[in-house]
Design brief:
By secondary structure, the protein is of the alpha+beta class. Helices cover about 35% and strands about 25% of the residues. Helix 2 packs antiparallel against helix 9.
């Protein structure tokens, strides 16, 4: 099966063929990856050197693997800084490394874009073997596949890849009639807490409006970007994405975009940008120019829930971090990443590390489930009746933590 490596997606477009429209997942659409490249977020002059691999069958593009040659570990959200430090202590180079991920986007989803009629099980063994060969040939320390789906795990395990688990929080919509129907599923205390939280914003005269697709005009985009940039600057960081990136999304992926803007009598306060497909809403970027108690929860969570209910979306992935989401009905869910290092002794070491870490992740997941605020056991949770049991502590250095101001 022929393999081609490409340094820019724009030069790959003719070869993509049937692959280009194969994925409904918004972050694996070529339009999203192309916007990252064309805006300069990835590519020349950045730590994300593009090295996508196109796999062909009979001269036609059959599978596309997003791939980046990384010079650091920023923007990944699966933290391997201790691994890099161990390499350095032994006089070895951890960077460059190869990473299959959506840059700056810790969202689980497909990681191999397949043409219609192609199947993951037919390609995955060959893809993983190809990655090992590329690392060996180019003297690269290893490959990391971040936030992969469960259907990668068995093949990866048989080929000796280490599987690292994490935990994040999703909101499920089993068919609630409206937000009040959702609230009725909570314990009395939590139901009152959420109602009070939302009511306080209304009492301050703060209201939210939702814009979709082409209804998001230039003024709204400018305000959102100002909020987004300010949030990063408040955390002493430079934003990963520039105004041109969002301008390109508006032009090529409008049907996948939803923007929430909060305002009061004095003007605009905050905004959050979401992406969605026909099944899931993804909370991605937020910021505020003025503060108000509960504003973040309203803009980033409750407005997203309301949107899911109106559109019939079944899931809401609000982004990284989690404990404050847990008390608002977001349930823990496992995430998976794959890791292969060319040096056998280090591969053995990280395999032991992720095995030990998995125990802590399991404990964190179970403790989090026990704190869900639902009256009934709809998420496998132990009813706690609104008790004051302490929140579980996230395992150190894993993707349940926060690398940037994104959330």
């Amino acid at each position: 099966m022929p393999v081609r490596t490409w340094r820019r997606l724009s030069r790959l477009e003719e070869g993509l063929g049937r692959v280009s429209a194969a994925s409904p997942h918004p972050f694996l659409q070529p339009a999203f990856l192309h916007a990252l490249e064309c805006s300069g977020a990835v590519g020349p002059g950045t730590a994300w050197e593009v090295a996508h691999i196109l796999f062909e069958r009979e001269g036609q593009g059959a599978a596309l693997l997003p791939l980046y040659r990384k010079q650091d570990s920023r923007g990944e959200y699966v933290f391997d800084h201790s691994w890099a430090a161990a390499y350095e202590r032994h006089g070895l180079a951890y960077y460059p490394k190869l990473v299959t991920a959506v840059p700056f986007t810790p969202v689980p989803g497909p990681r191999l874009l397949l043409a219609p009629g192609e199947h993951l099980e037919d390609w995955l063994p060959f893809v993983l073997q190809t990655l090992r060969e590329v690392c060996t040939r180019e003297n690269i320390s290893g490959w990391h596949g971040l936030f992969v789906e469960e259907d990668w795990l068995e093949t990866a395990r048989t080929q000796g890849f280490a599987i690292r688990e994490g935990c994040r929080f999703h909101w499920d919509n089993p068919g609630y009639r409206d937000f009040d129907d959702f609230l009725d599923q909570l314990t009395s205390k939590k139901r009152k807490d959420l109602k009070r939280e939302r009511r306080r914003l209304l009492e301050q005269g703060i209201v939210c409006r939702t814009l979709q697709g082409h209804d998001i005009d230039e003024a709204a985009w400018d305000f959102f970007h100002a909020c987004y940039v300010r949030t990063y600057h408040e955390h002493g960081q430079q934003p990963y994405l520039n105004r041109d990136f969002f301008r390109q999304l508006a032009g090529t992926m409008a049907e996948n975009l939803m923007l929430v803007i909060a305002e009061d009598a004095d003007g605009l306060l905050a905004s959050a940008l979401f992406l969605h497909d026909n099944h899931t809403l993804y909370g991605r970027y937020w910021g505020s120019l003025r503060r108000a108690d509960g504003l973040h929860f309203e803009v980033c969570y409750y407005q997203g829930m309301e949107f899911c209910l109106r559109k019939g979306l079944q899931e809401f992935d609000p982004g990284t971090q989690g404990e404050h989401k847990l008390l608002r009905g977001f349930a823990p869910r496992r995430t998976y990443s794959l890791h292969w290092l060319r040096a056998p002794e280090f591969q053995d070491a990280i395999s032991r590390f992720v095995s030990e870490e998995r125990v802590a992740i399991q404990r964190y997941h179970e403790e989090a489930e026990s704190l869900l605020p639902f009256r009934s056991n709809i998420h496998g949770a132990v009813e706690n009746g609104g008790s004051k049991k302490e929140m579980p502590a996230a395992p150190d250095g894993h993707a349940t933590g926060q690398e940037s101001a994104e959330d």
